Amino acid sequence: MSDTRQIAVTVNGMRYQEIVPVRVTLADFLRHQLGLTGTHLGCEHGVCGACTILLDGRSARSCLMLAVQADGHEILTVEGIAPNADTLHPLQEAFRDNHGLQCGFCTPGILTTLLELLRDNPDPTEEEVRIGISGNLCRCTGYQNIVIAALDAAKRLRGSSGASQP
Amino acid sequence: MKPPPFSYHDPRTVADTVGLLASLDNAKLLAGGQSLMPMLNMRYVLPDHIIDLNRVDGLSYIKPRDGVLEIGAMTRQRDIEFSDAVAERCPLMAEAIRQVGHRQTRNRGTLGGSLCHLDPAAELVSIAAALDAKVTVAGKSGTREIDFAAFPVAYMTPALELDELLTAVTFPCWPRGHGYAFVEFARRHGDFAIVSAAVLIEEDKSGKIARASVTLGGMGPAPVRAAEVERALIGETIEEKRLREICESLRKLDAIDDIHAPASYRQQLATVLPRRALIKAHERIAPEGWP
Ligand SMILES: Cc1cc2nc3c(=O)[nH]c(=O)nc-3n(C[C@@H](O)[C@H](O)[C@H](O)COP(=O)(O)OP(=O)(O)OC[C@H]3O[C@@H](n4cnc5c(N)ncnc54)[C@H](O)[C@@H]3O)c2cc1C
Ligand code: FES
Ligand code: FES
Fold first, then answer.
1. Which structural domain range is residue A112 located in?
2. How many domains does chain A have?
3. For residue A69, what is the DSSP state?
4. pLDDT tens digits for range B89-138
5. ipTM of this complex > 0.90?
6. Chain A residues contacting B via beta carbons under 8 Å
């Protein structure tokens, strides 16, 4: 049984028409078929959050969706966060400046998760940040610097209000 | 590519969905996928057909009606979390839903999926039991309503025929200003509860309890309504020492014994969490309505 379907998706602003086997997860589709390997797979059963993407602006685990379900929808992956190849997004700058990552495996999922959080709540408390990233596991940082980076990013984004946020 | 092979169907209407369920062998409905997709990826389930409910019309809504709140099966948990109607009429549900998984899982996960998955510790399953919800089910022979109390028939098994799907859930609302609290013990934020307590109370003018609903989640295969405690509370005023006595009887409840906690630990929680929830519920009583 190798049922396939044609789907049309927009990923990081680019339109794609692709044929996908119906049982392929969105995560594997992004990584293997589109070559967007920034989306990481830690557990493939919904626990670690490394595969988080934004689906129509809402965070979701791409290992828990089928690629066919994304037909007609808009996706943002970690590759689409920076405004261009030479400039980092303020959230990414805050992570760099505050040592918010070590190995970086969890980072794509944390950044996409925080992008949604900071859009909906531009001035979160530390507690709100911690709850917001409770679905993302990091094996390196102990979360301390991730939280510091998130709060710093919130400050930067508030300062540059009007700056384009996906 | 992790899930096993299957054929994929994405019907647009409830009637077409029922038609597929009735004609296909070994088919599985896919709602938010937050429980089914992990089971597919790990190949705990091997369906020949996946019937995706995400493009079916008319299953996602929150409708306040006279004295009840009707919520469509495919309503995302996130939409319930941010609904004004839910906050005003069913604050117990609003409080509980913030403890269901994480933002990313609530963005996809649905009310119907949680109730049909029927995890013994699922918060929404407890809320449906606490509020005496009714579920609406559609099948080949039309629609029917089931009292939520009769919905769980065995461990993680709802009272659905093979050709049936859940379409809506109706939650009776308590009068404005009632007391409510959802208290759970979990190892980390976003985990399933080890034990949870959902409490609703009304008091008369003199502060005596006139009506009570006390539900424990995580003890057995389905939530338990503590009927004996509910009866014992009538006519009492909320007072810690007396609540301790009343809730002590809950230690007798049967409890699951698993890697998360031994039965005796759950039984201890069963005496503690309802008491804490009752005190919190009492503090929230506001005859003029909540602020
Ligand atoms: C990291 C993580 C943490 C979580 N934490 C919690 C938690 O703390 N508390 C909690 O309660 N849940 C938790 N969950 C599970 C919760 O997110 C799911 O949303 C829920 O259990 C299932 O809902 P769903 O819409 O995703 O359904 P699906 O996974 O799509 O389906 C679940 C089951 O229900 C059936 N089904 C779905 N809809 C219908 C319908 N309309 N009619 C008939 N059958 C139907 C499916 O066939 C399947 O068997 C967690 C999940 C993850 C990944
Ligand atoms: S890979 Fe998707 S949650 Fe871990
Ligand atoms: S930086 Fe290594 S897992 Fe988070």
1. 90-160
2. 2
3. G
4. 999 999 999 999 999 999 999 999 999 999 989 999 999 999 999 999 99
5. yes
6. 1-3, 5, 21-25, 28, 44-47, 49, 52, 55, 58-61, 63-66, 68-69, 113, 116-117, 130-132, 134-135
